[in-house]
């Protein structure tokens, strides 16, 4: 059995108008809208739903206020889905039904989150992306690297939750869903990927001393580092507030840019994460600022000046011009 990745997520929020602007500026396509629900799609068909906070039928939240209520994971076919139905039968909150014409099974995970699985709706994409020239490999010849005016996210790449019991959650996802451990903060955090071969993590579970449960962030995959920058600068020009970034994670090697999200938690553009196989041995890290970020810009970059926030941009046509 192997989960392919995140197929759909559902937020509950108290300001749908703000969320409509937010996710459109983020680069998602609005595909359906009603008084109580917004439906967006990424490039490969991964869905992002935003429901009104009091909408009937929503899964219970693991925290009060705007937050992520449900994560739907995709599998390859009906046979895989049937195997997961057997694996999850008897778990708390087990469901097996049809949603939007598609069979969906699931349960409540040990942290109280509504977890669902369905045959994936996402499509395979081949997208032009940057080729990096390094000292030992110079494959981009007679071709400039891309510059992006904004981001168009490919999919929801990973989700990060605060959990009350990281060991119980890791055991559930590895034993019931077949996830693989990538790296850990012993007793504090677990980076998990859907299958032995894949990106560094699809799910990160973080246990705080307080035992708080909730959403930390949802991360959207973009093509390359240049789209991280282009997307972040555009989003900054739209007036949305950076939490941290741009920057680079040492643990996964990914470049990131985090923003505050009116639907709950944070939201991230990221690219260039490590790719792992079944030969990978999980490492252990002691949490700390330099482990979280090799480097990071506090407060973000201004989309107009292209400089750190509250720093004046150059006045001449060239960076070296002086008054």
UniProtKB/TrEMBL annotation:
Looking at the record, the residues that make up the VOC domain are 5-120, 155-272
User: What residue stretch is flagged as signal peptide?
Assistant: none
Full protein name: VOC family protein
Q: Where is this region: Disordered?
A: 303-323
Q: Which organism is it from?
A: Roseateles agri
